[in-house]
């Protein structure tokens, strides 16, 4: 049965009802979902095996982005994030993209770079050339460091040598990591070949570790959005397209704007990275290094008019795994892969990048129309209502009262709560209202 990611009215139902809907659509039963997410999915005893000096765990909201269609397939996409509005905005933008057929994604093979630095060289050009000539021997040596990976169809693919200074070269072993993120695998390769590399080059071994600038593991996502899907109550779709294209140009011209533009992309990508137990620092490091590759920090996604439609394009390195690392032990991370319906690393990267492009579209569309605050503050109002002590059945009502009053503050929420309490005749004993 083809999966769906369309659940109209999903935000209006209870958490238990959402679990049932997602369970039905993905084959993860509500009890599986409850068990995997109970207490944030991790108890202190298990956490103690992850890192050092553990006192406990720290939970974050786990939501799902809807309407996401990538390469013709629907995916319900788990997102772990503390920032209000990101999940809603990604779902909303994915719905607009869906109107144009969904996202189209293309991935490089899952190739990571293992670096060996060689120091104390006298002729770096000749040293680099010698290393290149010994590529077949070095590739075989690299494969011997990761036999498990080789047996799964991965392994060393190419050798590169780059001159960095008069006395230093960097030798890269490009490793196909299959479904792993690959940091430990690449490190094993770097350590496995380092002595021989230095001997061939005629220098001394320096550092041996992966590079997080995994620019041979890029994902490219495009989408075409019809003007009609972008229109707002006050703006025609064609004008929204003009605004979004202008917003893209601003980011292309200005690193200060590009940083915030890319932050919006990473809202989506980091949230999927975290939900799937992947290393978001590695993803962030790769993304920003790639954004600066021309010498000037640039946007990872750009937007152009294409006939009557809007076209978005994202390109960035994305090292995500579906095996190894935290995935082995975190039940919520394993649940996320089940909900997503992906088992391979490239499929996961395609979906995460699509959610990144959706997050970017939501932000640039809001900026080009109402400004970012309207939608953002509407959702922020719910957490303000919660902080003001509103009971769960009154949060939505109080949030809309403070949005209408343009007073999204703790005091405003407490006043609104006081009004509701007075109207219901519960008296001040039911809820403490401070003025
Ligand atoms: P890993 O060490 O768990 O290695 C993956 C394992 O899975 C290997 O033993 C491999 O043989 C096995 N495997 C099983 N099925 C596979 C398949 N289909 N494809 C590929 N391998 C398969 O994990 P890793 O991915 O090498 O490293 C990821 C971890 O390294 C993350 O936890 C990350 O935080 C951490 N790390 C990151 C950095 C960095 O980014 N700078 C540095 C060090 C460590």
Describe the structure in brief.
49% of the residues lie in helices and 19% in strands. The chain contains 17 helices and ten strands.
Can you characterise this structure?
The chain is of the alpha+beta class and 435 residues long. 49% of the residues lie in helices and 19% in strands. The longest helix has 24 residues, at 345-368. The structure holds nicotinamide-adenine-dinucleotide (NAD). Nicotinamide-adenine-dinucleotide (NAD) binds at residues 148-149, 152, 154, 177-185, 210, 212, 279, 282, 321, 323-326.
Gyration radius over CA: 25 Å
Distance between the termini: 56 Å
For the biggest sheet, the summary is: 4 strands, antiparallel
Estimated structural class = alpha+beta
Main-sheet strand order equals 3-8-10-9
Give average pLDDT, whole number: 93
Level of helix content?
40-55%
Q: What are the segments in which pLDDT stays under 50 over at least 5 consecutive residues?
A: 427-435
- Ligands in the structure? nicotinamide-adenine-dinucleotide
Count of helical regions: 17
Order of helices and strands: HHHEEHEEHHHEEHEEHHHHEEHHHHH
Strand content: 15-25%
Shape summary: globular
Total number of strands: 10
């Amino acid at each position: 049965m083809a999966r769906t990611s369309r659940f109209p009215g999903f935000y209006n139902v209870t958490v238990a009802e959402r679990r049932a809907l997602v369970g039905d659509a993905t084959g993860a039963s509500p009890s599986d979902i409850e068990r995997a997410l109970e207490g944030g999915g991790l108890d202190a005893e298990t956490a103690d095996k992850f890192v050092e000096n553990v006192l406990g765990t720290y939970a974050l909201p786990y939501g799902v982005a809807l309407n996401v269609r990538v390469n013709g397939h629907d995916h319900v996409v788990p997102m772990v994030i503390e920032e209000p509005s990101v999940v809603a905005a990604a779902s909303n933008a994915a719905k607009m993209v869906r109107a144009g057929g969904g996202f189209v994604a293309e991935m490089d093979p899952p190739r990571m770079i293992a670096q060996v630095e060689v120091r104390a060289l006298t002729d770096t050009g000749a040293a680099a050339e010698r290393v290149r000539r010994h590529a077949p021997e070095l590739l075989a040596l690299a494969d011997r460091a990761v036999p498990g990976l080789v047996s799964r169809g991965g392994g060393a693919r190419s050798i590169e040598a780059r001159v960095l200074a008069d006395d230093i070269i960097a030798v890269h072993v490009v490793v196909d990591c299959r479904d792993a993120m690959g940091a430990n695998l690449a490190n094993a390769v770097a350590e496995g070949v380092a002595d021989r590399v230095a001997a061939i080059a005629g220098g001394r071994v320096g550092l041996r570790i992966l590079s997080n600038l995994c620019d041979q593991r890029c994902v490219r996502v495009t989408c075409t959005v019809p003007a009609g899907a972008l229109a707002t109550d006050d703006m025609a779709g064609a004008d929204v397209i003009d605004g979004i294209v202008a917003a893209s140009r601003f980011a292309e011209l200005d690193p200060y704007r590009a940083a915030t533009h890319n932050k919006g992309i990473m809202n989506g990508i980091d949230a999927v990275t975290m939900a799937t137990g992947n290393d978001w620092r590695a993803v962030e490091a790769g993304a920003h290094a790639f954004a600066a590759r021309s010498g000037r920090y640039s946007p990872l996604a750009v937007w152009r008019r294409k006939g009557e439609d809007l076209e978005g394009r994202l390109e960035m390195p994305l090292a995500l795994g579906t095996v190894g690392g935290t995935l082995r032990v975190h039940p919520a991370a394993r649940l996320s892969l089940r909900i997503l319906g992906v088992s391979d690393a490239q499929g996961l990267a395609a979906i995460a990048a699509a959610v990144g492009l959706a997050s970017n579209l939501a932000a640039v569309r809001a900026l080009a129309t109402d400004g970012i605050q309207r939608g953002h503050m509407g959702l922020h109002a719910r957490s303000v209502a919660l902080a003001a002590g509103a009971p769960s059945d009154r949060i939505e009502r109080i949030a809309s009262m403070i949005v209408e009053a343009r007073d999204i503050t703790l005091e405003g929420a407490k006043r609104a709560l006081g009004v509701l309490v007075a109207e219901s005749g519960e008296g001040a004993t039911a809820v403490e209202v401070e003025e």
